[in-house]
Amino acid sequence: MSLYPAFLRATALLREPFAEFMASLSSSPPLVVVSDFFLGFTHGVAADAGVRRVVYHGMSCFSMAICKLLLVSPPAGVEHGAGGGSPFHVSGMPENVMITAEDIPYSVEKFTDMDDPVTRFLIDNVFQSDVRSWGILVNSFAALDGDYVAPVEAFYEQGARAWLVGPLLPAAGETPERDEENDDPEGCLAWLDERAARPGSVVYVSFGTQAHVADEQLDELARGLVQSGHPFLWAVRSNTWSPPVDVGPDQGRIVRGWVPQRGVLAHESVGGFVSHCGWNSALESLAAGKPVLAWPMIAEQHLNARHIVDIVGTGVRVDSGGGAAVVGRAEVEEKIRMLMDAGGEAAQRMRARAAWARRAAMSAVSDGGTSRVALQKLVGELQRSYDDVVIKVG
């Protein structure tokens, strides 16, 4: 993440080649430009070409709304960066939405610091282009995120709408087709097949590819996993770390290569997901109907965890103690047991809610579902607005 500011600056260098590309399409311009939130330059280039821009946010309406509301109305008396702290209500959100200082993303916390390179980039290159977009494309669905659409739309000019068209997953909610030679070189699915006699018994662990997890934390996680007594499949990013305890073939499997995460989450042997709560992973867990042990680390992941645990009810959150504190093995063991012990009241409640989320995700992308209808309406409105422009020009 230390290269993040440099990466953001590098994206701005794409403006000229993108403008040249758009110019090459002048005889048959596109209906719309769909571009990432961070690629603010695409708005101006598209406008110069007479093309509308729809901005894509790689986050939920829930997290997006909170971030925008906190930027314009920072909470009084909240010490940023403090571990835990008392929950407070975010003005402009439904009354049941409560967060703590620990949940506030770094980019929001640093927004008033003009010396911060990320803040400077966002102000100079992103924010104005964002709010002037014709529409907002959101990878989510109405049953999950519909209550937070209005707070998001309130920040945009000219009546821009937020279109919830997710989950943007192939055959969302269905079991993915298996191509083990190409998609599963480590044999994860075959390993899970061997445990199919005990449905829901395996814990899947993955913290994504961006956050760095210290070796000391990996050690404690390994010990907690073994002590929980539940078999686990663990995708580890580090190539140098080794577990401090022996992990027998019946106890777990540690994988350092590619893991077909959607296939793993859809597998009947998997009963829970220890996740950093990046939004893509969160959606994959919801679409698969698997409860989550939420272990957020960076960006808006703490808000995603708050959404999943407190609002949707499909998970439990690890107690990190705030800041960079190492989560001990006892906490890991306790929360995994809470997540995985099928006879426990908490696990039963989470699994019931996860099953609801899976049904809702599948329904959203089915014929007549909210996300499919939203996408159809989006395309229809773009076509009508384009025809109106052509008629006026003609």
TrEMBL record:
It comes from the Eukaryota. The keyword Transferase applies. This is Uncharacterized protein. InterPro entries: UDP_glucos_trans, UDP_glycos_trans_CS. The lineage of its organism: Eukaryota, Viridiplantae, Streptophyta, Embryophyta, Tracheophyta. Pfam families: UDPGT. Transmembrane segments: none annotated. Belongs to the UDP-glycosyltransferase family. Keywords: Glycosyltransferase, Transferase. GO terms for molecular function: UDP-glucosyltransferase activity. The keyword Ribosomal protein does not apply.
